[in-house]
Amino acid sequence: MKPANTKPPIDFPATFVRSLATLEDLPPIHSEGIVGFAGRSNVGKSSLINRLARRNHLARVGRTPGKTTLANLYALDRGGYFLDLPGYGYMKRDKGTALQARNLASELVERLPHLNRILLLVDVRRGILESDWEALLWLETLGRSVTILLSKADLVSKSQLRSVQEEWKAKLREETGENVNPIPLPLSSRTGDGIQDLGRLLLEDLYGPEQ
User: Fold this and answer.
1) Cβ–Cβ under 8 Å, residues 183 and 54
2) Looking at per-residue confidence, does 92 or 159 come out higher?
3) Is-contact 175 168, C-beta < 8 A?
């Protein structure tokens, strides 16, 4: 019997560079591409980065939602960066610190010239939340390429997943422009569902269509 013809998993080995409290904390970044990770607190951004990098503890996964107020920068071995933006929505900090985190995210998204794509993670169990939709429209006004990821897809039934996906697809096609991918990608960092599709998208973003 011939061995199954399976493709190796797409991964993005990476190293933690530093946490950013202000825009001035950024190290020199030249022409390398950057992929940003955005979403509400506790939506699974750190778990996704760990899965893509195939390292369990590269990005710290917090047990308490809303505690991360810094951005975190990761250098990819092949070139380019992952940028984990502070979570929005519920934030377990005083109002001043929460505002500072929001301002930091805004400055990074608005001023980084090589931010190729924003991955906007939304919890598939929550449907379309106002805060997620507002974040999406804001990113679109800045001209950023955005892909919606329906995170934690393994925690709902297949029929629930299809229903939420169709809801997002309909709303995206009606109310957003060409910078937003109208097909949201279901994703589970725990099971790996959707990771290969996402990986192919990121390979092209970061290293060109021949990858």
Assistant:
1) no
2) 159
3) no
Q: What is the pTM of this model?
A: 0.88
Per domain, the residue ranges of the chain are: 14-207
> What secondary structure does DSSP assign to 49-116, as a single string?
HHHHHT-TTSS---SSTT---SEEEEEETTS-EEEEPPPBSS--S-HHHHHHHHHHHHHHHHH-TTEE
Instruction: Please report, as a single letter, which amino acid is at residue 63.
Output: R
Q: How many helices (H) and strands (E) does the chain have?
A: 5, 7
Which CATH fold would you assign to the domain 14-207? Rossmann fold (3.40.50)
pLDDT at 85 over 90: yes
Q: Rounded to an integer, what distance in angstroms lies between the CA atom of residue 149 and that of residue 37?
A: 10
Count of positions (residues) in the chain: 211
